[in-house]
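step: validate -> pass
step: tokenize input -> pass
step: predict -> running
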Amino acid sequence: MLAETSRLARASGAELLLIHVGKKNPADEVRMSELIQSADLGSVQVTVQWLSGDPARALMNSCRSANIDLLVTGALKRENIVQYYVGSVARKILRGARSSVLTIVSPSGESRLWKTIVVNAEDSPFVEAAIRTACELAQFTQGAWVHIVRELKLYGLTMAASDQYTEEEYEQVRQQLVRQEIEKVESILQRIPHENVKVNIKVVSGKSGFELPRFAERKNADLLIMGAPARRFSIFDRIFIHDIEYILADLPCNLLVVHQTETDG
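step: predict -> pass
step: emit ->
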């Protein structure tokens, strides 16, 4: 995670806050110093913070007080059924954090370029920020692809499938709906610089939260980006599944959940 984070910190000129939740001891301090020295941090300003208490709550409280822009954490690629209902640290953070959260799957100790980025373009207060972030990150890697995924609303197709339409008319309606969804994404892209980014707009049928991870897997995506939900999660999101719950149950790749701060453009 430090290798991944150091690349982002150098590229953006950010300060780096390393947070360890747990009992502080000399061995951990030595290990932390070794990690910092071995990381390619360059001129990045690094601060280490040692906290106690519940890991998720301590991390989120620290991020709020320090006005953190991005919280980087790790996660199991596939959570078991107990963790799904009880909630892992990463899941709690993704639900409750007010900053953007980057969840790293299977950290390797090496900084890897993100060559294939998938963005969830579903209606969200932060969808434009998510697409903008994807285009900015793609600038770091020559030849990177940004795949913007939009859901084809099924109620339109259901109406077209009624007896009032012929097969040809149904196909015309479907193509029209697809075009409308593409135009919505194109209207957002007009406001975002992306001249040197290869962009693909993909319209999928079915629940976007379910289709999105499958699409990311097919593309061997390095990073999946989505705008943060408009509200906090509740127990009802465990029963009536929210889009992000499908993704968290089986992360296909690294996941970035974007919150737009007051200082963002």
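step: describe -> Residues 81-86, 233-241 have pLDDT under 50 and may be disordered.
step: cleanup -> pass
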